[in-house]
Amino acid sequence: MKSNIKTTLGVIIGNRDFFPDKLVAEARTEIVALFEKLNITPILLTDADTKLGGVETFKEAQRCADLFKKHADSIQGILVVLPNFGDEKGVAETIKLANLNVPVLVQGYPDDLNKMDVVNRRDAWCGKISVCNNLYQFGIKYSLTTKHVVSPSDESFITDLKNFIAVCRVVKGMRNVRIGAVGARPGAFNTVRYSEKILQRNGISVTTVDLSEILGNANKLTADHARVKEKLDGIKAYTSTGKTPNEKLVQIAKLDVVLADFMAENALDATAIQCWTSLQQNYGCNVCTSMSMMSENMLPSACEVDVTGTLSMYAMQLASGTPSALVDWNNNYANDDSKCVLFHCGNWAKSFLPDIQISTAPILGTSVGVENTYGALEGRTPASPLTYGRISTDDSLGIIKAYVGEGELTNDALNTFGNRAVAQINNLQGLMQYVCRNGFEHHVVMNASKTAGILTEAFDNYLGWKVYQHG
Fold it and tell me: Which is it for strands 324-333 and 336-344: parallel, antiparallel or unpaired?
């Protein structure tokens, strides 16, 4: 079955002249067929460019690098294929000359015990070590397959390749992401402080706007404005509105129009919005519904101006291809040390909330009036796979750091309000010790996937961040 997401990879087929040439031709045919099946576009030499389309000499490395440079805008990663021992210098020189700065996956073919004669033996087991040694010397970052040598038809390699493509998406996305910070950090939330300068040094741009500008522009719109009507229809199609008064729905729709314009004008990939408590006091509703709709549409949005929280949402979205949600590590679950309650007053993407409806935020309502909190969402997340994690800037150390892990969301009974879920995580108590000792925020991000390994590979190996993978 083909994926709907198109990926382009550069392919280097290594060769060494005293090993059988026919293995190079066979590998090229096999890789092209596999890529077609997986909806991957290969950029690789033909047999008219070099001997059988392989890379061995420096001139062949130059030709391959020139080809890669012509497709630099589309190549997301490089696959190194070793049907025989391969020429380690040829591989390393190609990647150095191309200078694409993308992830690299190294694969070597296994030998057949019945074909260990001179005309059939590969020795890629040894050749892969030599290639990796040269990549290491050149300072080129690379990824490895689960099995040291593996046939491209092996299911473990197909999984490795799909995971590698996800790593490529995360690396490319995180090096160019643009986040909108709407409003000031709530005064009571020191926990969501972050460093714009550290983020920018890592290619992550933050565009700020005063909340008064957003609210002022929203107040200029009227209920009969065409775009407000369009947004209102979209809200009603997205979720049950419950007992929400129509005038509150119009308020939400007007705010949605202005936020959409802000994102479009600044080419933003994600937003972090001030929602506690200025929005309720100065505009009279919650922005949760708009945030949920944006997150569902792969434009993640976090509350309380948690910029690194929405950055974490974006990273997990890139890894899995599905929406993420910002949550609080909120409550113990009875006496079960492996379970906890995840909670927020209501902005999770619809994908997490099959029983979604617009409601109010009771906790916030105690201070600003419940009538000013319409727009919060109500819903319970059912059992599903779980990847959780958090990216943070550590100003004291001048670094970006992160933690990630996997667990399960369960159907355990939970009698409360808002957006809520029960998570089960091995050694949860040890994880909470790590979170507290290393100064991480009370916010964490969840995604219905198993992608912690992908995120660790992208963050640690390619982006150079300090990462802890739990469990």
Answer: antiparallel
